[in-house]
User: What shape does this take?
Amino acid sequence: MVASTADTVASAHAPPKPHAGLEWTLALPLTAFFAVFFVTPLLLLVVVSLFADSEMTRFGLDQYAKFFGDAFNWKVLGSTLFLGVKVTALTLLFGYPLAWLYTRSGPRMQSALILVVILPLLTSVVVRTFAWVVILGRDGIVNNLLLTLGLAETPLRLLYTENGLVAALVQVQMPLMVLPLITTLTRLDPNLLDASSALGAGPWRTFFKVTLPLSLPGIVAGCLLTYAASVTAFITQSLVGGGQLLFMPQYIYQQTITLHNWPFAAAISMVFMVSVLGVVMLLNLLGRASKGYIHA
Amino acid sequence: MTLNRRHILAASLTLGAMNLFPGLSWAQARKLVFATFTGSWEEAHREVIVPHFRKANGNADIVLDPMLSVDMIAKVAAAKNSPPIDVMLMDPGPRLTLIDQGLTAPFPTDASKNYRDLLPVAQLPEGPGIFFQAVGITYNPEKVKTPPTSWDDLWKPEYKGRVGITNMNSTLGTAFMVELAKIRGGGEDNIDPAFAALKELQPNLGAVAPNPGALATLFQQGQIDISPGNFNAIQILRARGVPVEFAKPKTGTIAFLTTAHIAKNTPNAPLAAALIESAMAPEVQTKLMQAPFFVIPTNGKVKMEGDIAKMIAKDQEDLKASFVFHDWSIINKNRAAWIERFNKEIKV
Assistant: This one.
């Protein structure tokens, strides 16, 4: 989606090119920055993960063997990846109607909606997360409401549960889903929808046959961002998830900071990174497939 | 020399770099960096230790950088030859790691005025103890009508779903488990009784907090009413009017000594020692002991007063009698295995 936007912009404003072929030098400063501050540490991480013992005296694949040899570690990895799936699915479910509403609203309503969507991004994630601690607590808003309405007899345990965490993450990551969706949906030609209904399709059929497929690039971009952000959301995972729900980010923190077992921490970081990359690549493939679908 | 575009560019880049990295030009004269603890600790150290230190050392420049002990070790270990921190505070577990990894320089005890006045347990040449932390039972007096007197009270059926603990990542969580093992017939080298006891506690567990700070705030949310807790962690809440009190268990208050260390290879070694000297001074520790800080003194010359005298120990003798210390050299050896076991076994 990003690439196609760039193409559109480039083709619309492309003046004659005086120094054709040299534009790439503009990217050099950022490339150098990434090489020094991202690629180098990443390579270091790979090297550290290849030490066989926690004192870092000899090389070997022991850390990886240790990780994959214990079913518990598989469970932590699995539950982290699945947490991302749940959060992404729910964010899409709630975010899509919101983005759609935005495209159907007048300019004033649109400004209001975009403010609502962006506002959370302007507050720190710690503040947003702490609000959820207050909402989900035993004396929190949800429990007080349930008790007052007589829907529950004793306060429910919501804080430090996986469902509470999913709810908090869905809200915290919502802008990452809604913004790409809004971008795609506003670029959708309304004539197509009119054409669809003129040809006899009902609103649902139009949605599933026209709107949804055409918005796939936005969906993929939104899912990608939401997924990557929610599986790695260290702060929200620990503050709302508590001390006994273990996900990969806390696991890495625990091994690095509390136990000083850097090689194992580096190894599980690599495993986590590769797994998330796998999911991201899958989504990307989907995105590419959808592009073919649109241009066809 | 003719001035051209390149010269000006080079000069301005140099100036910019010197501005960004002042260490380039004044390698020896950087500010003293004191890594303290977060929250009320930072506040206390900024208001009491820092002014005393600056007055005694010709207004030397100092910055406080609050973080956890384990984070200090990570930072110093990552830059052994030019540590970004000059003075570090250590809990007993991390302290041993710091010493084992050779990341600290010994404190010059012979030249020190206050060192010999410290309680014997705090006289550690690798880095003297500048305050104690105490772990007892914290509870909400509005919900828990009879003040608890023993760790066993946490298992009372009336606290179903109301007990909070932290996981073993923190010193608090680990110390609680060791104490649990001790009162159930185990100890630092036999943690099994603690895990068995925790299994029995599960119906009562309302929350396993990710860290002691989060645990303390759970009182505010009404999520829990009783928990093992750090005496100092609840003082902020008390000052803000949250109903939370501290009770001494009859088997003793779990105590750990917080030690101050000079980072090895620091360019500021004399000033670092001077800061620790200030932190040991009786007038500093007396002031820190009073409201609103309530920091437990290690200097034998400090007379216990106020809430510390009432809730912790009325004098140094009482302190010796009621404090329980654990052997962190054994704990550190076992801790990785315990944390792994906690990860796997404790599910609320």
